[in-house]
Specification:
single chain; 239 residues; alpha/beta; Phenylalanine Hydroxylase; four-stranded mixed β-sheet; 6 strands
C-alpha cells in the first residue's frame, strides 16, 4: 500500500511522534536491546522527543560530531542503492515525507521519517560508525562503477542484513544494531533465539537481501564495528 498522498500534518505529527517514541523505547528497554553506539549518538542530538525533529535542527546538532546534512524531501520513495550511497559519501542523507501513525508502530510498509531519524541518525552521530558507513558507501560506489556484481552482492548483504537488520555483540549482551529495530517491532522477532544466526564471511555471497514488505525472520550476529570494517575493507581490496 503506497502512501503517495500522505505528507506531514503538523496537527497530529507531534502527538504521533511522542507516542511512537515512548512506546518503542519501552519495547527496546524491555528486551535490553539498546546498543551503546545508538544511545550515545542519540544523546548527542538533543532531541525533544515530544515532537518530530526538523532536518535543519538535526543537521545543526550533528555538525560538531560527524558533519552530515539532512535533506528534507517531499517524497517517500526508496532510493536506488547507488543514489543512497552517493549521498551518504557526500555526508548527506534524505528524509522522507511523513510520520507513521501509532497504529503502524509494528510495521509500516513505506519508508517514513520515523525510521529515517530513529533508525539511522543516532548511529551516524558516532564517528566510529560514520567512518564505517563512509567506507561502505565509497566501496559500493567503486564496485558499482567497476561493474563488480560479485562485490555488489556482498555489499548489498551488508547494507540489508547488517546495517538494517543486524545484531551486535557487546559486553552486556547482544544488542540491536540494525536501523529497522529502532523503528519497528521486528526487534521482538530478532530476539527469538531460533531466529538468530552467527555472521560468517560465507554469508556475504548468499544473495540474501531483506524483504521490505515483511519481517525477515533471520538475524545475523556479528562481534564489533571493527569486524564489520575489516569485512568491508576485505571487499574493497578485491577491487
Amino acid at each position: 500500500m503506497y502512501k503517495e498522498a500522505r505528507t506531514f500534518d503538523p496537527l497530529i505529527d507531534d502527538s504521533n511522534w511522542q507516542t511512537l517514541f515512548e512506546t518503542h523505547f519501552q519495547n527496546l528497554q524491555s528486551l535490553n536491546a539498546i546498543s551503546t553506539i545508538w544511545i550515545s549518538g542519540l544523546s548527542k542530538l538533543g532531541m525533544d522527543h515530544s515532537k518530530r525533529p526538523l532536518a535543519e535542527d538535526l543537521t545543526a546538532a550533528i555538525k560538531p560530531y560527524t558533519g552530515y546534512t539532512f535533506v528534507q524531501t517531499s517524497k517517500n520513495i526508496i532510493l536506488e542503492q547507488i543514489d543512497w550511497y552517493s549521498m551518504i559519501a557526500d555526508y548527506k542523507m534524505p528524509l522522507t515525507s511523513f510520520v507513521r501513525t501509532p497504529e503502524e508502530l509494528e510495521y509500516c510498509d513505506e519508508p517514513d521519517i520515523w525510521h529515517d531519524i530513529m533508525g539511522h541518525i543516532p548511529f551516524m552521530a558516532e564517528k566510529n560508525y560514520s567512518d564505517m558507513y563512509q567506507l561502505l558507501a565509497k566501496t559500493y560506489i567503486e564496485a558499482y562503477e567497476s561493474k563488480r556484481e560479485d562485490l555488489l552482492r556482498a555489499l548489498d548483504f551488508i547494507g540489508g542484513m547488517l546495517i538494517e537488520l543486524g545484531l551486535i555483540r557487546e559486553p552486556s549482551g547482544i544488542k540491536a544494531f540494525g536501523a529497522t529495530f529502532y523503528s519497528s517491532s521486528e526487534v521482538f522477532a530478532a530476539y527469538k533465539p531460533e531466529n538468530q544466526i552467527e555472521f560468517t564471511s560465507e554469508a556475504l555471497q548468499s544473495g540474501e537481501s531483506y524483504d521490505r514488505h515483511s519481517f525477515q525472520g533471520k538475524y545475523y550476529i556479528f562481534d564489533s564495528l571493527e569486524q564489520l570494517v575489516n569485512v568491508i575493507e576485505g571487499i574493497a581490496n578485491k577491487m
